[in-house]
Amino acid sequence: MKKTDGLPYVLIFLFLLIKVSVFRVLIFDTKSILHIALIEFPMWAFLLSVVLLLAKKKLWLAVWIFNLLTSVIFFVVTLYIRYYSTIPSYYDLQQLNQSSSVSGTITMLSTPWDFLFFLDAVLLLFLVRRWKQPVKPAAMKYVAVSMAAICTVTVVYALQQPIIDVSYFAKENGFLQSQVVQLYNRSTETAHASSSKLSAKELEELKGNEFVKVSEQESFGVAEGRNLFVIQVESLQNFVIGRTLNGQEITPNLNKLLTESAYFSNVFQQVGAGTTSDAEWMTNTGLYPQGMIPTANSLSGKEAPSLARTLKEQGYGSATYHADDVTFWNRDVLYPVLGYEEIFSIDDLPDIKNVGFGPADEVLFDFAANELPRQLETYERIYANIVTVTSHTPFEMPESMQHLNLPSEYQDMYIGNYLQSIRYADEQIGVFIQELKDQGIYDESLIAIFGDHSGMHGTLVTEEDQLLLGDFLGHDYSLKDQYTIPLIFTGGNLFEEKEMTRLAGQTDIMPTLLALLGVEHEEPMMGHNLFQYKKNLLGMRYYLPGGSYIQSEQFYKAPGAKLPEVLYDLKTMEERSKNSEAKKHIKDTETLMNYADLLLKDYIEE
């Protein structure tokens, strides 16, 4: 065989090496060529060598398809990490069939440079013209064996390492190796495995509180016998509450409602890859989500001891409303697991005023309001869970639904679009609250309103947006601003105007609601009654690196794919030196999350 016969194969591997190197630099800011050569590249090279060995007459087609698939993976991972600030798992990449609902976001995330991942597909065409059917070198099988040997070592090593944060794990052990380990852990159920259970007393002590039985808590039963309305607002962040832009209130209706509400202003999102559906899971179970895998997509179908089921024992009928396809995020599985008696989705709502996913929030609220008279005749009391959707990324609203007169610098900016969409959502909440009053239901109800997760995050928030946010807030847009959501409890003659700044999370919503309603829940929950306890400890697995925590005085961001660990003072968000107290919280958070996984395990598909 001539020396030149092996040249096309050298070029094929060279193209792959360049592409893998660019991927590593872009995603992990990798500087070590040795790390790329010994950790990241060998597994990709092994897969390519297998393709080359198996391919016969259609060798170039096989190579082209392989390169196209790797390009698609690199492209998708790049966009994913820009939006979610974390590496997707193999499971997330399986969910691309659901991407049509967020196609606008994908378009906004990509840049022309990203399509250079597909450049080798063009270059391969030139190789085809030069070598139509290259001679397959005998050394190819030795390349495959060598790469396999290196991969075996790196995978075995990776399997011995704990996955605290997937992105950091992938940086240290290789992207493909991280997927193999996750798949292995999922199949053997060893990820975050722990058999340690915590009593309710031990859980509160871990958070820094003295345990008090639910029935003995001061706020127990203050809303006993009332209807319950839970309004989960898409992308509603806390920083918009009470703020104005050129004299215009962003949330005038919520601001007005605060005069007769208990408002928790230091509540952090805890969602995982399932985002909105994870928020629904936490609100209705008091349990943590999975993190890197959408919880709704992993449910076995086993009935969970939920808010709806517990309230059913008290004579409540339950209904959930969402203007989207019920199969999105497997809600057709999630909702029966949560025990809703009535489920309303896009198929049930009038097909009018469509914005983004489906009918606008005003259609959703109007539909829910019209169902109430029938439901209140059918059931002793009603629990209604309403999930809004119009204020979803990319926040582009028809002019007729824009209530703000934006300054010129906010026009066509992401932050400008966001504020418009939140102002619209606020308007519809105000209309619904008034409808409850008009129907005579408001004074007989407990109402909870909260945001599901952040909207202003990821690379969609440009430098220009950051500057506008800083001007709007009066300070730099911090991680605390990004991940805090408002939580408002209201209802006729229930609360006086009061803002509470104690730390809270979304797992605290269900136990707080049940305590207010005077209902005890026998099954364990990760959250607690916010009116009772002052201290808290929240674990984070998504948007922030795994191992991150938020404690009543501290905010700890664990090391990630690119950035080192940072400890902040929670109140000021100023950096602090890591101390013994922080080390204790890191250990306590690991215990907390292990227990969370143990509770979740019963409802996850094996």
TrEMBL record:
The chain crosses the membrane at residues 7-27, 33-54, 61-81, 101-127, 139-159. Residues 226-519 form the Sulfatase N-terminal domain. It is a multi-pass membrane protein. Pathway: Cell wall biogenesis; lipoteichoic acid biosynthesis. It is found in: Cell membrane. SUPFAM superfamilies: Alkaline phosphatase-like (SSF53649). Keywords: Cell membrane, Membrane, Transmembrane, Transmembrane helix. It comes from the Bacteria. Pfam families: Sulfatase (PF00884). Signal peptide: none annotated. Belongs to the LTA synthase family. This is Phosphoglycerol transferase MdoB-like AlkP superfamily enzyme.
